[in-house]
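go over my protein:
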Amino acid sequence: MAPFKLETFYIIAPYAGILAAIGLIESLLTLNLVGDMTNKRGGASQESIAQGIANTITGFFGGMGGCAMIGQSMINVNAGGRGRLSGITAALCLLMFILVGSSLIEKIPLAALVGVMFIVVIGTFEWSSFRIIRKIPKSDAFVLILVSAVTVATDLAVAVVVGVIVAALVFAWEHAKHVKISLSREENGWDAYTVNGPLFFGSVTHFLNQFDVEQGSQDIVIDFKDSRVCDHSGLEAIDTLAERFTQAGKVLHIRHLSAECRTLLRKAGNLVEVSVLEDPSYFVATDSLA
């Protein structure tokens, strides 16, 4: 038995995290796959909590952790199992095989079990991916191939992490160009720039390049009615823009910030030295009934 020490925890923790991630991912994949086949949707949160509680209790009795298995679930559903009784029956039969019929199970050739798993793989693989891979965006196709290769080379947990990171970077790269600036002149003679799109680390450069600091009136308004400052890079972009207008002898005003953006500006303290205009209050006139 391993000694109950902090060093033991440091050794076990990385492997425990990987196994927990793989088990949770496979369970959720199984849940989605069975839901697609039976046109029913299960609760992902309930499945995750139940699996965590069950594996925790099992550990106190020296048992092994477990999760929902795609192969067994496929066989169960294809055999007509639709209710909870089908899963309980499969579990009880597996228990009887281990306790009573282990001697008979040992006589089954390993090659036959491999053949069964290949049939399960053929049934669960999304063959439509090959048909649509030329029709989907190249970035999505790249993520699809990358995740499949990493899964084969390492494990499912690493593949999911890599896929999420690459997909997030691709998303940021694609949406970095979605920030658009439109210029208009207000009644008081101020130039108003209306921002459309999220302002984050990926769109900062494109955002700054759309402003002409030398042209226009002395007071500049940036309207974020159709935009949002998402992170610290967006704050720094506003600060950089304010410095450019200040050096040109102009004053920068900000309008229509969301509550989250105002919170970011307050937390930034002296980082952003701009004039934040109060959002106007709009009233709707109603006719009184006689």
